[in-house]
Structure formats: C-alpha cells, structure tokens
Design goal:
There is one protein chain. This protein has 14 helices and 13 strands. The chain starts with 11 loop residues before the first helix and ends with a helix. It is of the alpha/beta class. Helix 3 (68-82) packs parallel to helix 11 (279-289) and helix 4 packs across helix 10 (260-273). The protein is globular, with a radius of gyration of 21 Å. It has an 8-stranded mixed β-sheet, sandwiched between helices. The protein has a 3-stranded antiparallel β-sheet with strand order 10-13-12. The protein folds into 2 domains: 3-42 and 294-402, Alpha-Beta Complex (Aspartate Aminotransferase, domain 1), CATH 3.90.1150; 60-290, Aspartate Aminotransferase, domain 2. Helix content is 40%, strand content 15%. This is Succinyldiaminopimelate transaminase. Residues 32-393 form the Aminotransferase class I/classII large domain. Its cofactor is pyridoxal 5'-phosphate. Keywords: Aminotransferase, Transferase.
C-alpha cells in the first residue's frame, strides 16, 4: 500500500458523524442541516432538458480534451465574465469532471517527486482536498492562517522566504471556503511577484465566484493577471465549476484555464488518468456556460436569503455578511464561553440543527487553529428553512448565555 495514504486525515464530515454518533436529536424539531455546502436550489429546467437531449452521445468515447463546442463555451464565459482577451480554446482551456478532482490531480502533475523538501502551500482553514493532494504528491502541506483583521484573507506576508523557496504549488480559494474572503488586485500583485521570484504555480479555486453580495463581482485570477499585464497567465491555473453557479453538483462539470504550458502537461496526465467528461454532460455544460439569466436568478435568491438570515444571527454570534460564497463564518463565543465542537454537538442534540465546527476545517499551525471557536453554516436550502434554522440557533445561544 502507498504509505502516503496514512497521512490523510478524516474528512470533516466523517469527524462530524463521529461527534454525533452518541447523540439523539430532540424529536420536537425536524432536522435542518447547514453542515454541507451542497446547493439545494432547483436545477434549471433548460439544463435538464439539454442533458436529456444529448443521451445519444453515450454511444461514443469522449475525448479527454473535451469537445470544441464545450471549450468554446467555457472560453466565451471567461472572456465575458472577466473581460479577458480572446483565449486559445485548444491550449488555454480544459474541461474537467468537477473542480475537486482537478484540484487534486494538478498536484500530482506539478510536484517534482525527486525533491524531498517540496511544499504545497494552502490557506488555513481550507478545503481538505488541498491537503490530501499535497500528501499524495509526495510534498508536505504548509498552512497559511487566515487573518480576521484582513477580512479573513490568508496572511501571505507572514510566510518566510525560506518557505517560499520550497513551495512548488500554492492553492488559494477566492471567494474563500469557509470565510467568503475575496483577494484584491494588490493581493494578486504580491502573489504574482512571489511566483515570479520563486517559480511556484498558483492554483486559483474560484468555484464560488458567481455568488456575491456587492455590485462588483469578485476578481478572478486570470482577470487580475490580465489587468497587471501578465500575458499568457504564467504559472497560473484557474478552476471553476457549474456546481454552485448552476445548481448541478451531480453533473461533476468544471474547467481549468490559464498557462498553456502547464495545461499541456496536465492534459497528458489526465489522458492516462482517465478523466474525460461524458458526452451528454459536455453538451449540457456548454448550454449552461452560455446562459447568465439563471445565474442572476440564483444569485438573487442568495442575496435575499443572506440579508434576512445574517442580521438575525448577528444578534447572538460574531458574524457578518461575507464578500461572496454561500457560507457564514461565525464566532460562537460572543454571548457564552463555548467551543465550536461543543456548540455544534449541543445545537444538534437540543435543536436538531447541524453546523460544522470551524476547527474541523483547519489545522493547528503557527501556534493556533484559526477555525477554533467558529462554525461554518452553509445557507444552501431555501430561505424559509434557513430562517428556521437561524431562529433555533438564536434561541439556543441565548439559552447558553442565560446559564
């Protein structure tokens, strides 16, 4: 067996199941889960129809590089969304079966196994795929703590030069999971300067980019590179997905785009790995990337939901509207001294609401666990259900404070 598998930690939801194993939730309340970031808004009918109309494609093997029509649809979306110059669909865009598998696979492509001191840097808290990808590529993860004083953006300035010199890949997530933080153009300039100096690749996870609460949409990595005059997007690979944007997590459809030299090697890896997207999924995905009306309608639902739920929770928790994404990242000890783990367990037991302890999404690094005493709440259900959950959380938290 590969000994690197022993380095993998249980997934946050496995930890949550273990935490709840001996708990019988209060039967007076129906269960409501804010624990998993799985979109619950309905899949648009036109995407379902496009999938059904494309089933003849099941009789053919798909190309790993995807169809020309899908690559053109992805490139067109990138150009419209981020104001990019025309992309080469043959070299700068590649469909993937969901951003998750591509985020994992990129490390296997990029990390040099001959180098015994390789690091893969990632934010902390983080999406656990980054950590697993680092370990199974033969590297070690290096955690960069989020900084509440910077709206929870990772504190990249805290990383020593000798660490950057060992980094081969930097994962970043903007808008962030779980914090919702969005990197600024100045942040990108600093990261590009570091990449130029030390030669590492930036993997920009942008799967929450279309759920935002301000008039100006979140800045993307390729958009930042273009604004800063970085032609060809050197050492930058951006990831996106239809899962959150279009409410189709079951389709497993996304893309990578950016540096053509890296994508050429990544396509070679994927050809051997067997990661081609099914033809019917490709056809439906091309249709989805070409439509913005359903995205605007979806975003409007989130805006309304967060405007109603956030002020309610802010009465009892230290929480504010994020820049983007569909999570609230709340500090739980505003009214009562309680850990994130105890808060989640008691809330589930007494009010049948599931939230995810923040410490499960982070690692202790540089003397702290930046998720400690925080919880992540995924506001993915319809507004009425999220409001009911929020009202229960308010009642529970006030009861804690009274005792």
């Amino acid at each position: 067996m590969n000994p690197l598998l022993d380095k993998l930690q249980p997934y946050p939801f496995d930890k949550l199941r273990k935490l709840f194993a001996d708990v019988t939730p209060n039967p007076a309340y129906r269960p409501i889960s804010l624990g998993i970031g799985e979109p619950k808004h309905p899949t648009p009918a036109f995407i379902r129809q496009a999938l059904a109309d494309s089933l003849d494609g099941l009789a053919a093997y798909p190309a790993t590089a995807g169809s020309e029509a899908l690559r053109a649809a992805i490139a067109g979306w990138l150009e419209r969304r981020y104001g990019l110059p025309k992309l080469d669909i043959a070299t700068q865009v590649l469909p993937v079966t969901g951003s998750r598998e591509a985020l994992f696979a990129l490390a296997q492509t990029l990390v040099d196994p001959r180098r015994g001191d390789a690091l893969v840097a990632c934010p902390n808290p983080f999406y656990q795929i980054y950590e697993g990808a680092a370990y199974l590529s033969g590297a070690e993860p290096y955690y960069i703590n989020s900084n509440p004083a910077r709206n929870f953006a990772p504190d990249y300035q805290s990383v020593p030069a000798e660490v950057w010199a060992r980094v081969q890949l930097l994962y970043l997530c903007s808008p962030g999971n779980p914090t919702g933080a969005v990197l600024s153009l100045d942040d990108w300039q600093a990261l590009f300067d570091l990449s130029d100096r030390y030669g590492f690749v930036i993997a920009s996870d942008e799967c929450y980019s279309e759920i935002y609460f301000k008039d100006e949409p979140p800045l993307g990595g390729m958009e930042a590179a273009h604004k800063l005059g970085r032609a060809g997007y050197p050492r930058l690979i951006s990831f996106s997905s239809l899962s959150k944007r279009s409410n189709v997590p079951g389709m497993r459809s996304g893309f990578v785009a950016g540096d053509a030299d890296i994508l050429k090697k990544f396509l070679l890896y994927r050809t051997y790995h067997g990661s081609a997207m099914g033809p019917a999924i490709q056809s439906a995905s091309a249709v989805a990337w070409g439509d913005e009306t359903h995205v605007q309608e979806n975003r409007a639902k989130y805006i309304q939901k967060f405007r109603e739920v956030t002020p309610l929770l802010a009465e009892v928790l230290d929480v504010a509207l994020p820049d983007a994404g569909f999570y609230l990242w709340a500090k739980v000890d505003k009214l009562a001294a309680i850990s994130d783990v105890d808060f989640a367990k008691r809330l589930y037991a007494e009010y049948n609401v599931t939230v995810l302890p923040g410490s499960y999404l982070a690692r202790e690094a540089h003397g702290i666990n930046p998720g400690q005493n925080r919880i992540r709440m995924a506001l993915v259900a319809e507004t009425a259900e999220c409001l009911e959950a929020a009202q229960r959380i308010v009642e529970f938290t006030r009861k804690l404070a009274a005792h």
